Amino acid sequence: MKTIRNVVCPFCGSLCDDIEVEIEDNRVVKVRKGCAISATKFTKYNEERIYKPRIDGREVSLEEAINEAVEILANAKYPALYGWSCTSTEAINIGIEIAELVGGVMDNTASVCHGPTILGEQDAGISTCTLGQVKNRAELIIYWGCNPAHAHPRHMARYSAASRGRFVKGRKERTVIVVDVRKTHTAKTADIFIQIKPNSDFELLTALRWAVKNGELEQEEIAGIPAEKIEELADMLISCRFGALFFGLGLTMSAGKARNIEAAVNLVRELNNYTKFVMVPMRGHFNVTGANEVMAWATGFPFAVDFSRGYPFYNPGDTTFVDVLTRGDCDAALIVASDPVSGFPAEAIRNLAKIPVITLDPHETLTTMISKVVIPTAVVGIEAEGSAYRMDAVPLRLKKLVEPPPGILSDEEVLKLILKKLKERVK
Amino acid sequence: MELLIKNGYVYDPINKINGEKMDIAVKDGKIVESVSSDAKVIDATNMLVMPGGVDIHSHIAGSKVNSGRILRPEDHYKDVKPRTAITRAEVGHTVPSTYTIGYRYARLGYTTVIEAASPPLKTRHTHEELNDIPLIDKSCYLVLDNNWIVLDYLSQGEIDKCAAFIGWIFKALKGYAIKIVNPGGVELWGWGKNVESLDDQVPPFDTTPREIIRGLCKINKMLNLPHTIHLHTNNLGKPGNYRTTIETMDTVSDLADGKPNIHITHVQFCGYGGDSWITLRSGAPEIAKYVNNHNHVTIDLGQVVFGDATTMTGDGPFQFILQNLTGNKWKNADVEAEGSAGIVPYKYKRKNFVNAVQWTIGLELALLIKDPWRVFLTTDHPNAGTFMKYPRVITWLMSKVAREKVLNKINKRAKKRSTLPSIDREYTFYEIAIITRAATAKALNLANKGHLGVGADADIAIYNINPMEIDPSKEYKKVRRALKRAAYTIKGGEIIVKDGEIVKSFIGETFWVKPAIPEDLEKDMLREVSEKFKEYYTVSLENYIIGENELASSKPIAVKTNL
Amino acid sequence: MIKVILITGRSLNQGVSKELGKFSKEYMEKVAVCELDPEDLKVLGLSSGQNVKVKTKYGEVVVKATESTQAPHKGIAFIPYGPWASILMPSATESTGMPSLKGIDATIEPAKDEEILDPEKLIKMVVGREP
Amino acid sequence: MGEITLKPKVTFKVPIIAETITPDNFAGKPIEEIEKLEMWEGNRKTTLGDLFEAAGSSGEAPADTKIIIEGDVRKVRRIGYKMTDGQILIKGSVGMYLGEKMEGGKIIVEGDADSWVGAGMKGGQIEIKGNAGDYVGAPYRGDTKGMKKGTIIIHGNAGNEVGCWMRGGTIIVKGNAGLFPGIHMKKGTILVEGDCAGRCGAMMKGGKIAILGYVPSVLPSFTFEEIKKSFKVKGEKIKGPFYLFTGDLNENGAGKLYVSTEKNKHLQFYEKYLE
What we know:
The complex is a heterotetramer.
Chain A: E1 2-7, E2 19-24, E3 27-32, H1 36-43, E4 54-55, E5 58-59, H2 62-75, E6 79-83, H3 89-102, E7 105-108, H4 115-124, E8 125-129, H5 131-137, E9 140-144, H6 148-151, H7 155-158, E10 175-180, H8 185-188, E11 192-195, H9 201-212, E12 221-222, E13 225-226, H10 227-239, E14 242-247, H11 249-252, H12 258-271, E15 276-281, H13 288-299, E16 305-306, E17 313-314, H14 321-326, E18 332-336, H15 346-353, E19 357-360, H16 366-369, E20 373-375, E21 386-389, E22 395-398, H17 411-425
Parallel strand pairs in A: 6-7, 6-18, 9-10, 9-14, 10-11, 14-15, 18-19, 19-20
Antiparallel strand pairs in A: 1-2, 2-3, 4-5, 4-20, 7-16, 12-13, 16-17, 21-22
Helix pairs in contact in A: 2-17, 3-13, 3-17, 4-12, 9-10, 9-12
Chain C: E1 2-9, H1 12-18, H2 25-31, E2 33-36, H3 38-44, E3 51-56, E4 59-67, E5 76-80, H4 83-86, E6 102-110, H5 119-127
Parallel strand pairs in C: 1-5, 2-4
Antiparallel strand pairs in C: 1-6, 3-4, 3-6
Chain D: E1 2-8, E2 16-17, H1 23-26, H2 31-34, E3 38-41, E4 44-47, H3 48-51, E5 52-57, E6 65-69, E7 76-77, E8 87-90, E9 106-109, E10 125-128, E11 151-154, E12 170-173, E13 177-179, E14 189-192, E15 196-198, E16 208-211, E17 223-233, E18 236-247, E19 255-260
Parallel strand pairs in D: 1-6, 2-7, 6-8, 8-9, 9-10, 10-11, 11-12, 12-14, 13-15, 14-16, 16-19
Antiparallel strand pairs in D: 1-5, 2-3, 3-4, 17-18, 18-19
């Protein structure tokens, strides 16, 4: 039995890197420090595993599966390559070259989580920081439309509300505000809870900014919040020494989407004229940030890149996977480390089911169910190493703890084989 | 693999070769005395032959550069090139993709480029991008002046341990030199504040910008690092800051021993006279005077080129001022216990008084500083313009006519206030070779770069222009055209560019320094540092370290220290 | 029948059970649910654990009603991310790439005797063929 | 005037990039040359002749060239890209980026048009008889160069962000508009004759927006000025009365927002700020 320390957890965007696991005959038998999800991930990763490649449900050799995948991609006039948020940066990087080679659309799951955050940033920018700045300095913390108690279980203890830093020693020295439509479990731990009407975040953020600028609010109530309360809140934000706004899909998915983020960016930018203020998106999947980073350095754009004319073209709404599917534009798809079928709207799924789909995944999913070609891969961060980017874009190294099942390669290795074959095939 | 470059006019200042017609022999990636008769021959008759260019300061990789790419899709739409059998797709103008950066530098005849500022915590990201920059050799400077562990040690006067920590961090993170960015000011930016003078306190640390600079300058010597400290001054971007710049140079003059011990970067941005944007004037004459009288200083220009730029620095408070001035979109990204970064898109306009003054400052510096071995060509890419504009800047230095043509188009008030019209100096090809290759390689102490002597790396640029016949002063347009697209670029003995097109692609080396630190000292230091890490950082010390296997092509340079 | 605003999102249970497998008993138990405000449950004459049918402009699905632990939020219903929630969502993204997964108008009615479809049946229903 | 008629040869599946379909490219060319014009079918480079049945003859100059497109071209994008003159008549519905960066001439669509109609338009006229998608007149992501000149008339409904980053010109929506009409607007005029989903003029610095129908609310960063009798668009007087707001004050903006008083009784409370 051996113990491995400082393991990086490959579940959520918090990438906690202090996990301790005990390994016994190539199995993880014990997990320390991880949250409930982390513990399950490290110990139950063999549930519903796929052990053999499949074509049309028939078990085949890896080579057959790869040849079939290559044929599908090489013949497609508008293939889409999607997923990427639960694999290594190295694997995504190879996916990008495949997309470039076959003239496809390369999109990652950011388009359906924090894509709007990126769009908001592209119009207004963003004042952000690594999580340690918050831990060391933040006196006031806002969680807006996010519920770390459920989605990022150790975030508050390690990085934010209850973390212990150099200048701010813990929860008692911080003021915590939660803005949400429900009194979430995160809200229950807050000093101030602001229950906002659904789909009115943009109005509240706009009002707050106007109040920070000392403007007069002509409406008595905005987003269900009385004007005086908004003015009080504005004063609190101005008078803290260092404030941090954490925000989630409550902002990016509700009415306004990218514009909600822009309004938040503008509020924070305004606050920096009075004090120090930053904001950090609560990224979900463990390497969705890495997918954005590597796509940006390789193609100039962080997601939704269309290579159909040989060079990168970017326009979310056009080149994003949900839209490509809904319009029925693509004629083949490669899905890596993602399960769109369990998360996409019905119309998109119907169109996905009509085209040949190649899926790389360690596990049976709703997407493997409808896939023509299924290639099982190793679990990144447990059976394969690689780089991943935390929600604040801090890069960390995922460890290989155990050997994958016999004959199972990592996403990176399988994609390399596909790329190699494609280069011979496409000329 | 053997190469023979025949009959070119060679400019190799390190070996004092000034336009001699001669052959260059290449074998196995190195320059050699001679090659066999079956060597591939390149006929360089009537062509200009130089060592491959060495860029000492450019923002090409890492979290800050990538933030610029993500922030500015509008920068990319129009500047694209489809994939070819040899090259990946090209995309981006002021903040191009990694592949684009490699190809474009190679087309200019540049073969070595250093990323100018990497925050340690995000240096893994820097290396992941460097791994994806093709053709050129590269490295990165580590930003260390606002690092809490460094500041703790300096405040406590524990300079040995501080040196040991910095030595260790180069080994752990694979960097090349100590970068200093607005010392003290960036730490205070953590609270939305800044410093205004070299002697402001930096609470809670018992230190000042002056003490930080002097401390790091001493440590640089103790560690015997190949490059000097590489410094972005306090008060950068503020009218009147040329005084701070000279004071900064002078604060380490007593530590010098005949050799340069400080490099001040993109001096254009810290060469401002006057006391407001209205009274702004060039501080270049004063700075040039100091540099001419003190041999412990080297500088690079940060030359402004009119048009689109993306400002990106580790100087958070400066970028905050800039976003307020312009109202443009603004990204700020602070890094725990280490520093910050800011990005603001910017467009330099001829008719804008401030921009016009900025344009004159860079050129005045280059023309008024007498020793070309201590003033280097940069645009602080992409802060003052992209590196693609180097040929344009070179023709401004080589041709008074070219300068006057621009002078007649810029803001009148700026022209009137500038000494530039009165300067007649014109650079020679020999001097251009110095400020773009020889001197930068020497300043970086890269023994095998920047020259064509036997044993040097076979990094060679050949331009289709006859230096014996052309008059750069008049025919500057021809010079510019030739320098834009090298006739040949040779990297490590391989022909990578022919007639301005990429003909071969591979990944160059990433070099980094590996200082030898006494074991017990390192142990003591690490014991303390791992404790501090738990309090200061959100990652473990183990996961902070970058393995050599994470570099695509790692080239460690062992360094004997004086510890 | 009551009118609600439907939101979807992550939940700890969804996160844990996801790691046990998309076809596991636990996943269906934790994800094929609709969290309702106690008052809304009362209006429907239901108690926690009974099935309801949720309808939007875009589709309908049967899930298990549970009393919300994050109340009060009268008039707001929550379904964790997963195949049951996504059937109810619009595919239009307003040209942003992001479907509107929060703040959808929906109705909820008791469906005590109607079965909750497992993922396979659900997909069959959506794509109209045997997967 | 010369007329060229185009009919798709097949039903298109993948996106077709047809930025070559402009009077400028057709003028003075015989059919066989027009058929050689480059197009993209997904990732395959192809020609107009491979995808379309082309008939008729073009005029000498763009000005006297009319292009008539029949059949389903919902997958066809960038028709009328940078056109300077002449006419395009689309008898069905059309895909994205219709009349992108258009400088002159006229485009008429009898059906619907997908998003980014007249993206960054610089002149001319676009008329959509059906509905339009989102981002009418808007530039691409991160860019601030929205519609500068010209007129876009939509007889049906328009989606979100009509006139995003608008710098001039006129947009008229005869039906309803989605969220954020006139967002980041600097100059120009937007008229919505139907209802609007709200957040009109968010972050606008200048220009004029009028909503004749219902708006749920006005943004808190707008201030109520007065009640106006009428609103002028292209010289034509539109009868009010209107509540007139100025904004977006968060951007120190001086944009004008006119909102019908009759259709928006719930905004009456603003009247207490009169006198």
